[in-house]
Amino acid sequence: MKKLQIVSVLLLTMAVGCATTQLQTPSGKPDIQINAPESIVSKAILDRIVSKGGIVRSQSENIIVAEYKATVAANLLFGSRFNPDTIERYTFNLIDAEENRTRVVITVEIVSNPHSAYEKVQDFSKAAAPAQQMLLEIKNKVEGKNTPNDANTETRNAGIDNTPITENQKQSL
């Protein structure tokens, strides 16, 4: 049992070490300019949150806060005795950049003891490449560009996997 724990810690350490590449954006956080007004960008972000299993915790004109269940690795690294479950919290800041342009900057946090008086927040914004990819997909959707994750692309598992179905797979269904 002790060997399993040691191996688990080593694997988690390696996984966290691989995820520390800093983003090359003006803010150092996930950050993108979208050619659309704030209202349209906000609706696209809300759609993305809900379709990926997130919960919208709060929303105002310029801020959307969403939460997702954290990974097992995050639970092991950041969970506590009080509450071993953690959450990923995404704060989307929408900034009216120019006419019909919106800048979106995301703060990504891992939260232990969520929604309690003992909540502890770890900022992971500077190593959040998946959040930058999410912003790029939202930008492509809003601007009408085709992406592999487009709703028009047939996917396995009702879009959960986002892997296009091949002709052979269609025939086996």
What does this structure look like?
There is one protein chain. This protein has 173 residues and is an alpha+beta fold. It has a domain at 26-143: TATA-Binding Protein, CATH 3.30.310.80. Helix content is 34%, strand content 26%. Strands 1, 2, 3, 4, 5 and 6 form a 6-stranded antiparallel β-sheet that branches. Helix 2 crosses helix 4 (129-142). The longest helix has 17 residues, at 2-18. The protein is elongated, with a radius of gyration of 18 Å. It starts with a helix and ends with a helix. The relative contact order is 0.16. The model is unreliable at 149-165 and 168-173 (pLDDT under 50).
Note the topology.
Blueprint: H1 2-18, E1 31-34, H2 38-51, E2 55-59, E3 63-69, H3 72-78, E4 86-98, E5 101-112, E6 120-123, H4 129-142, H5 167-172
Antiparallel strand pairs: 1-5, 2-3, 3-4, 4-5, 5-6
Question: Helix/strand/pairing class, anyone?
Answer: alpha+beta
Tell me the name of the CATH homologous superfamily of the domain at 26-143: Kinase associated domain 1, KA1
State the low-pLDDT regions, or none: 149-165, 168-173
Main CATH class of the domain at 26-143: Alpha Beta
Q: What's the β-strand tally?
A: 6
Number of helices: 5
State the gist of this model.
The protein is α+β, with helices and mostly antiparallel strands and 173 residues long.
